[in-house]
Every structure is written in structure tokens, then in C-alpha cells.
Amino acid sequence: MQKAMACVPVRNLLVEEVNRSAKTVTLSFPLRMRPWFSKFTTAFGHAPPEQKKRLELDELGTFCWSLINDKRSVQGIATELSKTYQLHPEEARVAVSQFIRQLGKRGIIGLKEGAR
């Protein structure tokens, strides 16, 4: 868990922010195509269609998203969330780690090793 919390989230450059407001943001990101479908379409001489998906973040998600800057660790984001929203540190750690995991599964972010 310590090693995961030291990782630094990195935004996918293909993700776009659309409909940003003070408390929410909608992310638009390319949908990952299944390899078999991609091969199927290219076999018939067509480029696979680019599809985008949207994800609307709530206030806490938007706050965490704004802290992802390729420098701040997952633990650093959890600490800021805890301070800003007066959450118990463990509650913030769990919330941020689940949020980061979900963004990673969707290909919205990647993780790199943090400083040791």
C-alpha cells in the first residue's frame, strides 16, 4: 500500500476537459477498442472508428483531478483532500486510491514511480 501511495498519477494526453465549472468537470477520453474488433475493421480496409466516452466528475473528483499534475503523489492528493474537506486521513486515502484506480482502469491516467 505504501508503494502505491507513493506513485505519481500522470494524465493521459488524449483526455480532454469539457464542460468545466467551479465544482464539476466532464472528461472526454478515447474508448479503448477490443483488439479483435480493431483487427476485424482493418482487415476490411477500414480504420477503426475513434470513439470517445465521457465521465462527469463530482466536486471531490474534480478537486482530485485538479491536483493531478505529474508531480504530486497519490498520498499527496489524499493529504490535500483530507485538509480541504476535513476528512479523516484514512478516509481520504481510501477515497483517493479508489478514484485513481477507476481512472487507471479507464485509461484516463497512468502511474509512475514516485521519488524514494
Q: Please outline the major beta sheet.
A: 3 strands, antiparallel
Helix amount: 40-55%
Tell how many strands the DSSP assignment holds. Answer: 5
How large, in whole angstroms, is the Cα Rg? Answer: 17 Å
Number of helices: 5
| Mean pLDDT over all positions | 88
Could you tell me how far the N terminus lies from the C terminus, measured between alpha carbons in angstroms?
14 Å
Which structural category fits the helices and strands?
alpha+beta
**Helix and strand run:** HEEEHEHHHE
Strands in their spatial order, largest beta sheet = 2-3-4
Mass-distribution shape: globular
If you had to describe this structure to a student in words, what would you say it looks like?
The structure is a single chain. 45% of the residues lie in helices and 20% in strands. It has 116 residues and is of the alpha+beta class. It has a domain of 81 residues: Arc Repressor Mutant, subunit A (Orthogonal Bundle). It is globular, with a radius of gyration of 17 Å. The mean pLDDT is 88.
